[in-house]
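Support reply, case 0932

Customer input (verbatim):
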Amino acid sequence: MIPLDPPSDQPAASPRPSQTDLVVASILSMVESGQLSAGDRLPVEKDLAEQIGVSRGSLREGVRALAVLGVVETRQGDGTYVTALDAARLLGPLSWFADRQMDAEPAQLLNVRRVLEAESAALAARFASDEQIAEMSTVLDRVDALLEAGAEQSDINAIIDVDTEFHRLIAQFSGNPLLAALVNSLAGRTYRTRVWRALEERGVTADTQAEHRAILAAIERHDPDRARMRMHLHLLAVEDFAVAHRADTAPSTSDADSDAPAQ
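Our regenerated output:
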């Protein structure tokens, strides 16, 4: 019998990162430290590869990975630049995953949206200024005008576009840019389900407008708990609809199939 080696008290050595991973980590470190800023051009390939200690092929692979992440962009004939590092660009991979999740299990994405937006409403109740509250109220006035004009039957998309703008403003006025970016990235992905619900449930658009007014009233009173609860109940209705119609097929109309911006 071959004797077994006694167990070692030393932890197993961590695998060494690949050269591509090293490139990604090194350039991200340069951005975080301020050595590279938004809009800066990366050093020429030869110099940067030597600085990081990798081959030029590995450098190119790492730069391509960072381009997918939205951290850098290559301009044909002009070099590679650090992007503006805006949230929408950096959350691109999350948006791709959200699209896949919305196709597979929309209720799960709607659940995440409810959690995030309930908190954004609570934060808006704490931090929104009078001017910002007035801006949100003006947006809801546009929904009232559309409903009075009979758009609930003739132009559901126009109403939902304004609905999306209202939710976007709440997130924006939460005072948390990261939370706002996440909300904006996910809200547009639920557009088709919201159109479908409006087509299926007559009168739901007017009910939704009343819920929006209740959310805004709580924000205007600077009542975070009530704003959170109102938003939670408001989005739970959409989530419940998605669960109830999980096995159904969405109506094949030009409205339901339109591609909405991620707002």
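We compared this against your earlier run and they match. Two observations from our side: The chain is about 65% helix and 5% strand. The two ends are 68 Å apart (CA to CA). Please reopen the case if you see a mismatch on your end.
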